[in-house]
């Protein structure tokens, strides 16, 4: 082994604490990079394969009614590969607990396995009896513990049907099981999907030889949007309710957004850790070169040139990069497998495609090596200035200068001796002071992000389900009904308040952008919603015009006062232009709101409603269980409980983020403190001669770190606020809007965590102080 390599190994052993701390940063950074990148690719490929195997539909069309023969004729349209019709309705499922309201979506399938959106059999067999058998979606079956051959009781138009469970299946259409955009979160125990024969569905729902939904597969070389526009014209006479593409399909959209966020995270988080590691390495190598001045002079005198010596110190940095990269990528690849499995279980994909992507491993090693080599070269460049003859004697100590505080005599005389040492060291080592302070600020900022995320979810919960929505129950009808149905409901249920509503999908168009959303019609002075505009002022629903949620307005690029077109799919109804009267804050969901009278006049028929909101202490679910034309009864309390379960799941990920922020802060403060102790051995030895104990010297270092911690936290507040703003804006989606206003309590907790991280790193440096040979330091200086 080369003599310089032996020296390198000795140095690594001597500085193992610092070496491990910096390596930990590289490991965490590259573990994030490989885990998130590989998980995103695994998810994307698994999803693509699953969609291919099951022939996932490109277009979904909801109509009032279309004859079976006319569905087949759609295959003659250019660009369409396959077409299938089906009957789809939401109906109540009778369960043992009469107080519990469970809804299921009944979807018809052909006699043989469907060519579009084909089902993936998990357990059991295909339907054998057309009028008695049913297949159940796996998520719903698991949540309700439904077994094969179990009898399910369906309530269809007041009539009860008993169906035997023949199979448990997975569907590409319901990877992420949500009833609609208004549901926001999955409730697999409250909403499920059942697959029945065409014959049963058509007979039960009165759709003999006809359908109310069409699924279409397009030819790969054709533009889906152009096909969609053709379908709008051709199918208008059948009462088109909504046409959505594969990209707009709710389940696919949710999982696609998750994959997109994984990719964003894989490109940002690792850079923070690698960047900090590179800075620490650069500073550490620079300080080591300074301390090894005499040894470097000897090496040069023995014939080693500048390139060899610089490469010797750069190899230290390179060792950190390579070791950290290898461990980080291995852990990352293993973690990506577990992450993919968790995602697939959460999103219910019955296929699993996990690969080890060696290019990411090599890329991680390359990126890490580049970061570390550059930082090592920058740190070791001072080797060029060291001359063998001059380096034989110790470097002249720095000229002591008075700091500006000493000129304020009244103040300076009142400061204790130990505090004077602290202040002098801070002002005489400004670069080190700025570096540590900035590192603590970065730790504070990174800690702030998950804490804000946790506070934000809690805030969204209370705001959306307590302030924004104020109804006890949200009742939906199977079809639009006359407003007099409110009187029928009030005769069955004792209500405190009740209001009609319209929830209907329309396409909102502004310029070249458009979005199909649920437009909600409400009374002008509704008591069941509390609307606040972007200026935090309460507003009512205007008599004319439209109110848009913030995320919808942002997607369309529309502002208050501008005109948008409401494109209707309802036969014999013209598209209308309305003014955007207000843009409101809405944390969850994407909606537009209008006056119910305006919707009745311009978009639907007078006095027609699609449901009601009500407040009551009565047992609504039990009393309306057998009522006709009611598809769902949603309790706000049920939605709150689902969101609470979601909050529990986020605690783990938030804890992981705080842990990694702690590793970052620990590495920065520990390495900087150890370097400071090494540089100041003579100073601390002199203090020992003057009678200072090791504990008192430790207190001096603690005071310095305390000042830097306070300033770091203060500096970290604007940095953290900017990072929160950037990340929240990047991760905003159509379905939820993330607030960037950080609460005071979040700032406080981030400060407490930062102090804990700094204190832990401080405790680990105590061993370094106890291990210092103060007498040896004095001897070396005297000689």
From TrEMBL:
One of its GO terms (molecular function) is transmembrane transporter activity. It is found in: Cell membrane. InterPro entries: ABC3_permease_C, Macrolide_Exporter_MacB. Residues 268-386, 656-770 form the ABC3 transporter permease C-terminal domain. Its main location: membrane. Pfam families: FtsX. The chain crosses the membrane at residues 268-285, 316-338, 358-378, 433-451, 649-672, 705-724, 744-766. GO terms for cellular component: plasma membrane. It is a multi-pass membrane protein. The keyword Cell membrane applies. The keyword Membrane applies. Keywords: Cell membrane, Membrane, Transmembrane, Transmembrane helix. It comes from the Bacteria. Belongs to the ABC-4 integral membrane protein family. This is FtsX-like permease family protein.
């Amino acid at each position: 082994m080369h003599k310089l390599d032996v020296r390198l190994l000795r140095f690594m052993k001597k500085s193992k604490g610092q070496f491990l701390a910096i390596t930990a940063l590289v490991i965490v950074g590259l573990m994030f990079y490989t885990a998130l990148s590989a998980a995103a690719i695994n998810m994307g490929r698994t999803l693509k394969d699953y969609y291919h195997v099951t022939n996932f539909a490109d277009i979904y069309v909801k109509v009032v009614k279309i004859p079976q023969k006319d569905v087949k004729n759609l295959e003659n349209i250019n660009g369409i590969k396959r077409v299938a019709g089906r009957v789809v309705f939401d109906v109540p499922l009778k369960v043992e607990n009469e107080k519990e309201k469970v809804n299921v979506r009944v979807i018809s399938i052909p006699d043989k396995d469907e060519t579009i959106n084909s089902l993936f059999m998990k357990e059991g067999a295909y339907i054998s009896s057309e009028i008695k058998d049913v297949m159940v979606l796996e998520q719903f079956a698991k949540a309700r513990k439904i077994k094969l051959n179990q009898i399910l009781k369906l309530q269809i138009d007041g009539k009860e049907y008993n169906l035997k469970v023949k199979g448990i299946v997975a569907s590409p259409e319901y990877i992420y099981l949500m009833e609609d955009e208004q549901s926001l979160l999955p409730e697999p125990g409250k909403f499920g999907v059942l697959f029945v024969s065409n014959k049963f569905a058509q007979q039960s729902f009165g759709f003999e030889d006809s359908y109310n939904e069409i699924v279409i597969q397009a030819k790969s070389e054709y533009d889906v949007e152009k096909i969609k526009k053709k379908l709008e014209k051709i199918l208008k006479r059948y009462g088109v309710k909504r046409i959505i593409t594969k990209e707009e399909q709710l389940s696919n959209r949710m999982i696609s957004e998750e994959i997109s966020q994984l990719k964003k995270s894989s490109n940002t988080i690792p850079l923070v850790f690698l960047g900090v590691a590179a800075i620490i390495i650069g500073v550490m190598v620079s300080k080591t070169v300074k301390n090894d001045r005499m040894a470097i002079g000897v090496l040069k005198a023995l014939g080693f040139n500048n390139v060899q010596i610089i490469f010797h110190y750069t190899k230290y940095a390179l060792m950190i990069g390579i070791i950290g990269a290898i461990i980080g990528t291995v852990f990352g690849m293993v973690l990506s497998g577990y992450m993919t499995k968790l995602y697939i279980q959460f999103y219910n994909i019955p296929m699993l495609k996990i690969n080890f992507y060696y290019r990411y491993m090599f890329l991680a090693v390359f990126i890490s090596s580049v970061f570390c080599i550059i930082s090592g070269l920058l740190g070791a460049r001072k080797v060029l200035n060291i001359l063998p003859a001059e380096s034989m004697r110790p470097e002249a100590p720095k000229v002591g200068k008075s700091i500006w505080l000493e000129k304020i005599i009244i103040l300076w005389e009142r400061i204790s001796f130990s505090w004077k040492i602290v202040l002098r060291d801070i002002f005489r080592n400004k670069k080190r002071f700025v570096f540590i302070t900035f590192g603590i600020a970065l730790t504070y900022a990174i800690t702030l992000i998950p804490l804000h995320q946790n506070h934000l979810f809690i805030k969204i919960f209370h705001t959306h389900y307590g302030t924004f929505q104020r109804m006890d129950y949200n009742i939906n009808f199977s079809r639009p009904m006359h407003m007099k149905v409110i009187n029928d409901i009030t005769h069955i249920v004792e209500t405190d308040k009740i209001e009609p509503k319209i929830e209907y999908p329309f396409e909102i168009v502004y310029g070249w952008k458009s979005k199909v959303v649920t437009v909600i019609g409400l009374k002008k002075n509704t008591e069941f919603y509390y609307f606040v505009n972007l200026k935090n002022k309460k507003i009512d629903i205007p008599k004319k015009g439209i109110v848009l949620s913030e995320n919808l307005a942002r997607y369309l690029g529309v502002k208050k006062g501008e005109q948008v077109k409401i494109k209707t799919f309802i036969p014999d109804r013209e598209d209308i232009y309305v003014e955007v009267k207000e843009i409101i804050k809405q944390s969850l969901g994407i909606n537009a709101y209008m006056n119910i009278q305006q919707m009745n006049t311009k978009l639907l028929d007078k006095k027609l409603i699609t449901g009601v909101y009500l407040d009551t202490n009565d047992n609504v679910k039990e009393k309306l269980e057998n009522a006709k034309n009611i598809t769902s009864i949603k309790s706000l309390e049920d939605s709150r409980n689902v969101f609470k379960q979601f909050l529990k799941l986020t605690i783990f990920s938030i804890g992981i983020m705080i842990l990694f922020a702690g590793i970052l802060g620990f590495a920065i403060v520990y390495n900087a403190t150890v370097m400071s102790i090494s540089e100041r051995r003579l100073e601390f030895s002199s203090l020992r001669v003057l009678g200072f104990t090791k504990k008192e010297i430790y207190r001096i270092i603690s005071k310095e770190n305390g000042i830097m911690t306070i300033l770091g936290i203060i500096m970290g507040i604007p940095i953290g606020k900017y990072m929160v703003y950037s990340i929240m804006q990047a991760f905003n989606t159509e379905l939820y809007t993330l607030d960037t206003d950080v609460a005071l309590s979040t700032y406080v907790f981030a400060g407490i965590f930062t102090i804990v991280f700094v204190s832990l790193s401080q405790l680990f440096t105590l061993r370094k102080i106890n291990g210092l040979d103060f007498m040896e330091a004095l001897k070396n200086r005297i000689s």
